[in-house]
Fold:
Amino acid sequence: MPVRQLSEILINRIAAGEVVERPASAVKELVENALDAGARRIEVVLSGGGSRLIRITDDGAGMSPADLSLAVERHATSKLADENLESIATLGFRGEALPSIGAVARLTIVTRMKGADSAWEILVEGGKKHPVKPAALGEGTRVEVRDLFFATPARMKFMKTERAETQAAIEAVRRLALSRPDVAFTIVAEDRAPVTYAARTDDNEGRLARMADVLGGELRENAVAVQGEREGVGVTGLAGLPTFSKANSLSQYLFVNGRPVRDKVLIGAVRAAYADLLHGDRHPVVALFIRIDPREVDVNVHPAKTEVRFRDPGLIRGLLIRALKDALGEGSMRSSSTGADRLVAFARRHVGGARAGSTWRGSAAPAFAPGFAEETQQAFDALASPSTDARANVVPVAAELLDRPLGAARAQLHETYIVAQTRDGLILVDQHAAHERIVYEKLKAALDRDGIRRQILLVPAVVELDANDAANLVERADDLAKLGLVIEAFGGSAVLVREVPAMLGETDAASLIRDLADHLAEWDASLPLERRLLAVASSMSCHGSVRAGRRLKPEEMNALLREMEATENAGQCNHGRPTYVELKLEDIEKLFGRR
Structure:
């Protein structure tokens, strides 16, 4: 087959495949254009998930007829003053979005410059450019994209449902709205109420307000402020508490000089900062804004401009990890909010079975609807002969401890939960989760300091395993020895445990070895040795913790509370679950209708 030159229309359609992958891509490009044009108000209208209609209206600078005609040509842009690609200060500059969209859709642009007498309109239909003609519009620009991909019907097969495409487009606008709190956004889509984000001040306070607008006030209640700077690079934003984690990484909002990105360096740094705080299948919620000299970052890496390349990625990674660790360390004694209002709603929903004004007389109690109220009634019926498991281990109040962050231990419930009293509320502690974090932090400190002390087993434990699991453990025997666990091969499918970490106390060596075998089967060899060792230490700490079901003495309960107060990241266990929850008196009063 001979070599031939492709037609301009076909070239544009090929380029569109790189720039406009789905309706959300077109929305992102067009909103970025509006922001670069100096818009202070942007309206986004979607129909059919964006495949039938995308309309972006802004009050930006607008264009002259000559600029409008040139704007739909490939590699034409107003965002580069010269040939310098080393210092990009705009969101888009490649000059491909408008001609690419016009190549696969029906694109109409109406624009009017500030102070101009009239507006102008151009239509590009499946790559065919129509002449510029007069139109009617106030100052600014309106871009309409209809019948997206009508010129490339094969692309339609890869579209998701209208609902999914709408959600993706809205998410693209949300990310841009987070980056520009000084701009007002309105989003109108089918089957949804219109959403408006009012313009905020362009400072830290305004950014926090916009975060609350876009992400909801729940993040602000369950997050800590992040701030750091190193060698001219700065980072600000919010980091969600580990107990406020998600099942995926979609709630990680990362920005570089106002540009929303999904960068591997940044995502890896966030993951590393939370490594000690979250289980592998949980993801933190963050909104982080990085300020850097444009000459130190290359934004011309990918047509969609979602990836960047830093000149010094080590600097960025180190700054981000340090800033996040500092912020999370300061909030280490915080757990996610209890949601007292949700508790009130739950209580009202389940305890509302009794008729108003009814009373109990002797054992003739009213019939309750199944649920919480039924269990409550059963508990009252059982008062004559309470079970040992349900009886509280009551502790006299230690008044001098009421002002401590975690208060004074008052009771142990179900031999698992410690109830502590503070001056203005109560705290419920999961004794196993709390002690697990304490043991883990001690293991880390010992590993950094002078190694972990070992305890020789009087009778070495023989643990039968799968042959592959046994081989994996023996292969890593030297690494495990650094953590105080000394093992050796014992036949083809067993290992012999000779020593265990002393701080674990009395532990079930066989159970520990089996858990570690499961963990090592998922060992990521690409991680640094230190991170792998800490992952093993996290698993080991679970076996050295106070178990649920163990009755604690009053002095043991208070000692655990004091150790929690002195331990870094004590608000959550190694798996990201809360170690305690707090109810203020006002929360309790809400539960009983006193507020």
Remarks:
- The mean pLDDT is 81.
- The chain is about 35% helix and 20% strand.
- Residues 216-330 form a domain with the Ribosomal Protein S5; domain 2 fold (CATH 3.30.230.10).
- The first helix runs from residue 8 to 19.
